[in-house]
Amino acid sequence: MGQWIILCVGFCVLVVVVLPSVIIRGCNFDIYPPTEQLSSFDHTVKVFVVLQNEICDMPLEEYIKGVVAAEMPASFGIEALKAQAVAARTFTLKRMTANGGQGCSAHPGADICTDHQHCQAWISQDEFKKRIGYINYPTYARKIQDAIDSTKGLVATYQGYLIEAYYHAASGGATDNSEEIWSNPVPYLRGVSTEFESKEPDFRKEVSFTVDDLEKKLDISLKDKKFTTYKIAGKDVQVISEERMDKPIEILEVSKAGRVKLIRVGDKVFSGYALRTLLGLPSTKMTYRITGNKVYITTTGYGHGVGLSQYGANVMADSGKDFVEILKHYYQGIEVIDYKNVQAR
Predict the structure, then answer these.
(1) Same domain, 180 and 325
(2) What is the rounded average pLDDT for all residues in the chain?
(3) pLDDT tens digits for 173-192?
(4) What is the rounded CA–CA span in Å between residue 96 and residue 35?
(5) Mean of the pLDDT values across residues 23-29?
(6) Would you say the pTM of this structure is higher than 0.70?
(7) What is the number of structural domains in the chain?
(8) Which structural domain, as residue segments, surrounds residue 123?
(9) Is the domain of 178 the same as that of 312?
(10) Helix (H, G, I), strand (E, B) or coil at 88
(11) Is 90 helix (H, G, I), strand (E, B) or coil?
(12) Residues 336 and 238 in one domain
């Protein structure tokens, strides 16, 4: 009788405990671990969440987790995700008012916002789960958590100070010096070759505008006024007409990497950065053509083209480079150190 009881108990343990565990592991359903208790290093970040239209206080590392989830595909190599985590952490700490930063200029009272065009993208874990699907979520969430945990407290510095850790999606062959895109030269934001990105999508995209649309969006005119004088009843009568400019668009200056620095459109001159913003273009690396009443603009790459290229980082990770090597490629002359060793401003 005792043997039967032992057999029954053993069978129950097999069915209730062992088999579910085997099934879950066999399906690769990793259990997403809770975030560990944050150490004394961690800070609270005042984040303006655009969708909620309010400032939320978030533990730094929890906030960085949402940035990495939003800014870089979780399918990327773990070393690329680590590089993204360090860049995002550095970018954030540089702006935090508690550390002497300027905060978010668009949202007074906030250190940073979730508008990727102004600060950094960020999503909640619920939104991340919806984006990648409930089946993929445990694996990818753990992967991102590993990238955060293994780089915790690490930041990028230049001569002991936090850097401006700018990054973008894809450079299209080369990044640019900071002064090529903005006004100030920054010693660690130097243009570097990213020809290896050819293995990744070049984000080539063509958009079109009618002449009327372009004139309205840019508040310009693509027409020249033509003055013609006629003799009518012995008097001179001047007639004004408008005709399409012979050369309505002209690229005036490009960067070493081929991004437009200055461009004339109609009767106005724009910086490439301003034109990209006004027209919602993916990149300033562009060409154009005019056919009939339409203007076609073709862009290559995605983003401003300064600092870390996310797709380039993934190629480097796939080739065996670690996150420090990736960061040092895109940010020249920097060191990756623990935040507690950063020089005070």
Answers:
(1) yes
(2) 85
(3) 899 999 998 889 999 999 99
(4) 23
(5) 33
(6) yes
(7) 2
(8) 44-200+304-341
(9) yes
(10) helix
(11) helix
(12) no
